[in-house]
Write a structure and sequence with these properties.
mainly beta; 63 residues; two-stranded antiparallel sheet; binds zinc ion; 8% helix
């Protein structure tokens, strides 16, 4: 198995794994960490926000 969060495997992801983090609004950051809101919505967040409290994830507005 290759490292799923490093290197060339990212090239297969939409936008090459990058985007704007819905929690901290950093742009062009790698969104590799899935979080699930209390209502069941799946969101991808950046490395920093992988450790964010659930309340931060729930505060993401639907887009
Ligand atoms: Zn973030």
């Amino acid at each position: 198995m290759s490292k799923p969060k490093r290197g060339r495997s990212l090239w297969n992801l939409p936008s090459r794994g990058r985007g704007t983090c819905p929690v901290c609004h950093s742009t062009r950051i790698k969104l590799l960490y899935p979080r699930t809101k209390t209502d069941g919505t799946a969101v991808k967040v950046c490395k920093r926000c992988d450790k964010a409290p659930q309340s931060k994830v729930d505060a993401i507005s639907a887009s």
